[in-house]
Amino acid sequence: MSIDPPSNLTTPAFTRPSSPAPQLPPSPLKSGKHKIAVIGSGSWGSALAKIAAENAWKRHDEFHSEVRMWVREKQVNGKKLTEVINRTHLNSRYLPDIPLPRNLVATPHLKDVVKDATLIVFVTPHQFLHTVIREISAPGILTPGARAITAIKGVEVNGTDISTFASLIEAQLSIPTSALSGANIALEVAKGQFCETTIGVPGRADALLWEAVFDSPDFRVATVDDVAGVSLSGALKNIVALAAGMVDGMGMGGNTKAAILRIGLQEMRGFCLEFFAGSKAETFSNESAGIADLITTCYGGRNRKCAEEFAKTGQPFDVIEKKLLNGQKLQGTLTSEEVNRFLLARRRTKGYPLFEKVYKIAFEGMPVNELVKGL
Amino acid sequence: MSIDPPSNLTTPAFTRPSSPAPQLPPSPLKSGKHKIAVIGSGSWGSALAKIAAENAWKRHDEFHSEVRMWVREKQVNGKKLTEVINRTHLNSRYLPDIPLPRNLVATPHLKDVVKDATLIVFVTPHQFLHTVIREISAPGILTPGARAITAIKGVEVNGTDISTFASLIEAQLSIPTSALSGANIALEVAKGQFCETTIGVPGRADALLWEAVFDSPDFRVATVDDVAGVSLSGALKNIVALAAGMVDGMGMGGNTKAAILRIGLQEMRGFCLEFFAGSKAETFSNESAGIADLITTCYGGRNRKCAEEFAKTGQPFDVIEKKLLNGQKLQGTLTSEEVNRFLLARRRTKGYPLFEKVYKIAFEGMPVNELVKGL
Description:
homodimer, Rossmann fold, eight-stranded mixed beta sheet, two-stranded antiparallel sheet, disordered N terminus
């Protein structure tokens, strides 16, 4: 297929202080170029794919221009979604009205997406991740020397063990895996509104590569040496967002909500430092993935919204989910359950009173006004 | 005058884990009790005075029950404000509808307020502070062994010197001075909505005393060994709130706003660590005075609101102030000017790009959409 220039590469809104871009680590491909694949095409996947494709186009000496994006094929008005995206350069289903670069190619088969890819972006709904990993971990599929990054939020608990998705991918595919998280509402990112993100990396080469893939004047990347912290902050903030929504639903004011955010941030940081060796308090205090994402999520976002409804109506979360989310799943309640199960198994619930209360209010009938008592 | 029990002491919303209250440092008064005076009676002053008077009443073995509050006398509907407050136990002018404890006594003369006081709370508008200090620093007015705390926000710049109000009070009155700041919208505090605050103290005795004066189930005090950090955070947050309001006024989304808060918090912390020896990064990252107050101020509050109007209309801040604030002064623009003057004198504006941009946009005609460029 022929690749036209991206339809939406405009002059950047401002010029950054121009230090020459550092030399990228070498590609394992014969072409000498890196090749980006994006697994996932929801609103967040499409927004990230858009940025990656724009950067690949601009730095075509170092990247293959074509960026493939895995789309689970479905029919949209009688047409295949992949064909719609590739013809109109719009993801009509998940990110309508945002023109996608022409060098971003929707692809229905996972194997075609990751073929020759040296840089693989995981951004599927988390329930698909195991299937995806199984499929691409078959011999001969992945390019030796490939690297991964995940933008999937959540954790997995097995008894007294807890894993981030970055550690799962790294363990099962045996490739270095980074994590991307930040104050990044997908639609705002896609529209090019200024924001920041954080990438937790296992090493310097990963930092250089993923910064080249994602950094742009409107999407400022900071890299930190803390994959677990970045992964965890993106998951745990959703528990705090439930608490924030409950505060809103009870009609409490800004002081109370700010107190909940502060306590929530402390529990997030404490949890990470206690259970993930090598993680860093600064990721939570200083980075977009920590404090900034927490703020965005607790003042916007669906976890906050559903918890507000929960506090107002007393309806169970699964009912509210169906009523308000149009088929999407609530991340916060899922993470709350996983984290509670883990803390029970480790006999450490008492160390995390806010997490524990959110769980008990959401699932065990504790009255919602108990939330702020005795914190 | 006879003192009836406070009219509004109700059962606390919850019982805290009851460790016995620690023994307070001895009072210099012959009675052996401490005596609280509150200088200021605006909404924030009245809210703090209410809490202090309730605590003094509850701990009458350690505190004189009567708490005096300085009220600049004015006529309200033909009656003296002090008399209205003392008869109705309502501050009809600045905190209407909130019943004040009966042991809180409005007093028009400063000397009567601080007579025998061992614990003096400064919470006047900052422009009155120098007059107040001058008046009570005359010989024989202050009780030897008295301590002070300030809840006044702002800084004072003289050439290359910068002072907090806590350091001014301490220097001019030669008494140990603490600082109180936190995510504390006055009306919400007065209503007893759960919130937290931070008190920066110069020593252990101050921590015990001020915690006894202010801590309550709905107004949770944390003390930190960082008077400057607590003072500065309360002042500098208002500059960031101007930036947040500008983002709102430009119609930018939650990502951008969260990025501004994150960058703002970093500049606040950096400023304090650079110019105030002994201050602590944790005050900003962990405490209500830091991150939590910043959030509250950037999502509510008048600095945000006026800056939003500024970005929308292009009117100068003094016009907006008159239009929206009903005679009150905007703290953020004042602090922005002071901080900019100080940074210029120190040739350090480049270290604080967000502070510098807010100043240039507010006062030097820089277009507001420059705010997020190149941060």
